[in-house]
Specification:
By secondary structure, this protein is α/β, with parallel strands linked by helices. The protein has one domain. The chain has helices at 170-178, 183-196, 205-220, and strands spanning 17-18, 21-26, 32-36, 41-48, 56-62, 68-77, 82-91, 97-106, 111-120, 128-137, 143-152, 158-166. Helix 1 (170-178) crosses helix 2 and helix 2 packs antiparallel against helix 3 (205-220).
Length: 221
């Protein structure tokens, strides 16, 4: 299994400023305030398999124009893992796009507590931002709390949010079992597909493959 920390895109923590065309890989979320520089195209993937206790907050400040941020969280919770965190996207300038996609799979007694803030200041016209949190619950004792918050002062913007919480799709499970897979194999494929949907934003095939191999390995246990 590839070591996530050995991938060239891996960073232990985010810097105070990000610019250019970059892909960044994280394995945790820590409280940080980041300035997204003008004309940047940033993809951040947080592949998280270990929880933490204290709430963490990531703040992205868009101070220039024409930047795009794709922020993707893939988290797998087991045992008593907790994932309390907030993302805040503050748009000070026009023509910036920010898309937050959080996908959580919760086993055992794990839980996630997520707050997503989208703040669009009055000068930030023609902003396009979206927040999505999807959770797959695989234990009756697992818990999820998700809250989107939109503060919009500008009038020429696109902003939206969505949150879904569900269990394994029984029809999909039945179909896979009818194709000769056992229940464990079928559930593993469904969970894997759920987590891999947002990987299309990753340009590097090597990084994408490394993440998929890690997901596969974790779901085998």
């Amino acid at each position: 299994m590839p070591n996530i920390k050995e991938q060239p895109e891996y960073l232990n923590a985010l810097p105070d400023e990000i610019s250019g065309d970059k892909t960044i890989l994280l394995d945790k979320i820590t409280t940080t305030s980041i300035e997204i520089k003008p004309d940047s195209k940033i993809t951040i993937i947080a592949f998280i398999t270990e929880g933490w206790a204290a709430p963490q907050e990531l703040t992205f400040n868009f101070t220039g124009e024409n930047s795009i941020l794709n922020f993707i969280v893939l988290n797998i919770g087991t045992k008593n893992d907790t994932f309390p965190f907030t993302t805040t996207s503050i748009h000070h300038a026009p023509r910036n796009n920010a898309y937050y996609h959080i996908s959580s799979v919760l086993f055992d007694q794990s839980s996630i507590d997520y707050l997503g803030n989208l703040v669009i200041k009055k000068p930030a016209q023609q902003t396009d931002c979206y927040l999505s949190h999807k959770t797959l619950i695989l234990s009756p004792k697992a818990k999820v709390n998700t809250k989107p918050c939109l503060e919009i002062e500008a009038d020429d913007v696109k902003a939206g949010h969505a949150a879904t919480v569900g269990n394994i799709d029984e029809e999909a499970l039945f179909y896979l079992k009818s194709r000769g897979l056992n229940e464990h194999q079928s559930k593993k494929l469904i969970v894997q597909g759920f987590l891999e949907k947002d990987l299309k934003e990753i340009k590097s095939s090597e990084l994408k493959t490394a993440i998929i191999k890690n997901i596969t390995h974790l779901l085998q246990n």
